[in-house]
């Protein structure tokens, strides 16, 4: 081994200037007392004590800079006695000192402690007191990634649902597609399934009105979905009703409702029929086929519908596989999650699911129904989804998965195709709404799920996709006031474009 002096790298020779900078840095380092408690797996409560010595040093430094230029009545600038300047500007300087001490303390804590934070510290600056004597104490809480034992993800047993799409499936879905172009006409007949109803809805409990919904329009389906409740007998209740009729039913409010007093409570719902419209489907003429997307004939239209139906069925199949993977990965994930994190994640989970549904080509009514279902069971569902996310995130890090630019392009192109707007506009809206991070998570998690599936023992089983028998309204029993719509549920202008056919105005 060569140990001669000539083997020494010149970069290893100490630089006097760097040595001075490092010495100054070491001197500037504060002697903080930091206590870290763990209220839960994903929370760290930090208490920090800044010594009197560090406080006095900070004051001295600030006054050293101020005294030479301080303007005090009766003295030329910079000529006032230091004691006088200190008394005159003490309160002003104190705010600056407190701010600098907090900033420097947080920076030092960040360097010395590895929290793997997933949120900003909830530090209340106004609550921090800078005393005239003794140390300064402040505290904050932050959310961190949980530490847990990784489950075994290779060799899982998974059932893969498979199903051939029949001509009957295509025709049934085609009817749904053509309803986008149908003509609504006022019906003189009692309400029937698939009719468009305009309803006034009143919710009450013990004879007292809780909330009302005025002139809400929805198709008559077997079930009705709201943000915090559902009515399983909606179709049965209103089939045969006439304009002016009122029908009553009882609904149970979700445990995740906004109104604490109504959580889990049964309320009375009254539906007043304001209007009934039926839909006349368009005839499949050459002019109509050309107008909706340049289809040469009915066969080409059927092919496009089959593609859309295939994409939607693939989504359902992938979700069934993911549900099995999630169940097995989180079976022993008994670590607790803080409520605040769950509340934040609940909305992110809705964003993720809605983006996937939009990419798969589902319509707004179906998307709204899924979003309502997630919101009704937000806390329980989110707890599992969040644990799944942390596990998939660990696997992605170990396997070095990342979302590449082409991955974003693919997802955005799919959303654009289904929404009938340009990819550029889709990207702009995602960025404006801060949903690119949700899209990134969606991409990475899908890659991990595909890898887990490739290492699993897979058995094919028959599959029957869920039927679209649910009407959905973006209202809640406990609160019908205006609020932000479900993210991406109305992603772009209403488009009637079929798969692969973008609107000319996009």
Key structural traits:
single chain, 506 residues, alpha+beta, Alpha-Beta Plaits, Chitinase A, domain 3, 5-stranded antiparallel β-sheet, 3-stranded antiparallel β-sheet, 18% strand, disordered C terminus
Assembly state of the chains shown: single chain
What is the overall number of helices? Answer: 14
Extended strand count: 13
Average pLDDT number: 84
Low-confidence stretches: 1-14, 19-26, 482-497, 499-506
Q: How does the overall form come out from the CA principal axes?
A: elongated
Name the beta content range. 15-25%
Radius of gyration: 31 Å
Question: What summary fits the major beta sheet?
Answer: 5 strands, antiparallel
Order of helices and strands: HEEHHHEEHEEEEEHEEHHHHHHHHEE
Going by helix content, strand content and strand pairing, the class is alpha+beta
Helix content: 40-55%
Number of domains: 3
What does the model show?
The protein is 43% helix and 18% strand. The chain has 506 residues and is of the alpha+beta class. It folds into 3 domains: 30-143, Trigger factor ribosome-binding domain (Alpha-Beta Plaits); 147-181 and 293-467 and 480-506, no CATH class; 183-280, Chitinase A, domain 3. β8 and β9 (230-231) form a beta hairpin. The termini are far apart. The model is unreliable at 1-14, 19-26, 482-497 and 499-506 (pLDDT under 50).
